[in-house]
Write a structure and sequence with these properties.
With 423 residues, this protein is an alpha/beta fold. It has three domains: 209 residues, 2-enoyl-CoA Hydratase, Chain A, domain 1 (Alpha-Beta Complex), CATH 3.90.226.10; 127 residues, no CATH class; 56 residues, OB fold (Dihydrolipoamide Acetyltransferase, E2P) (Beta Barrel), CATH 2.40.50.140. The protein has 16 helices and 16 strands. A hairpin with a 2-residue loop joins strand 15 and strand 16. The radius of gyration is 36 Å and the shape is elongated. The chain starts with a helix and ends with a strand.
Amino acid sequence: MRLFFAALLSISYAAFATDESRVVAVSVNGVVHPITVEILSHVIEQAKRENAQLLLIRLNTPGGLFDATRDAIQKIIACPVPVITFVTPAGGRAASAGFFLLEAGDVAAMTEGTNAGAASAVLLGGQQMDPELRKKIDNDAAALLRSLVSKRERNVELSEKAVFEAKSFTAGEALHQHIVDMVVPDERQLLTSLNDRTVLRFDGRHQTLRLSRPLVIEYRPGIREEIFSSIADPNIALILLVLGALGLWVEYLSPGLIFPGVGGAILLLLGLSALSVLPINWVGVALLLLSFVFFALETKFASHGILGAGGAVAMVLGSLLLINGPPEMRIRMSTAIALALPFSLISLFLVSLVVNARKQAVMTGPSAMRNVTGVALTQLSPSGKVLIRGEYWNAVSSSPIPPGTPVRVTEVQGLTLKVEAAK
């Protein structure tokens, strides 16, 4: 009897577990860059392995790189699992590149209190361009957006205004004007509303979602993705780069400290790795290198702070010009100044230590013995013994010197001092 109930319980549990619908979820926060594409590629692979009913992409981004956005859209469109793009939490946004990702989803949803749109900034990077070139880029982006929105049977005309007029929409406006498909208070309500909903896939197929008992499986990024996602912000990458350069410079000025050199090398490589996935402006790179050269020359030449001030100005300008991308990918002015000023002050402090050290009298070696006075212990005619700084030395003199006579060192010859009578 017990075996019967155990078997019945096992069958009931299996049926209960089978009724669960797996939903693989990932959050896209911050700027869109190549690491974002890599994460989306891996989460889609996981959704296929898990036989997921749905892939949920949470969006909260100010935008990002247009090339990376295109790659991410291709991943979403080719995903064999229905994709829900969801702007969350309240107060979040899907601006610029994020708006393209939102419209790429089979179902586009927003949380109450979010906004989306303003998709033109991702194209230009805040740079002045020829009107004809601007028109071509706008039309290219608008064509991409039309291909997404029309396939999803959403409002094409208003969606294009996000590109041509940088228009942004609240969640309510986006729903009312059919730019998104749903507005819900939270993720739980979203999954409930999606149950038994038929979605139109990009290839024209209709697919019904079965989410009576959704089981949300969070995507866990690998260590590499975690590190690069954390430091891919250009502001953080620049901070790592500058701190790394400072550590190496401290090690150069004070050899043997070891820790600044080791830590600086690690931070410098991390900063360079983060910048490697971003579009670099080589004028900015040249200005940053010039700033480091100016700071280094400050220790060699007495410029009265001119080289240090020039280094600070070059660092600020180089930081602002370093990233050749949209505004949300640029180095902030506050970050550039916050790095340049402390670096300059630390550099001037280290330079002052070097200058003061050079001004001090030499305390060791043959040079330190010259002009030091002592007393003759024996007759110097020409050699004998002298007492210098409490030490007994062999000494020679060009003229006889009687014992007890004060003497002055004129030269060091190996372990023998050449002295003369002190006047």
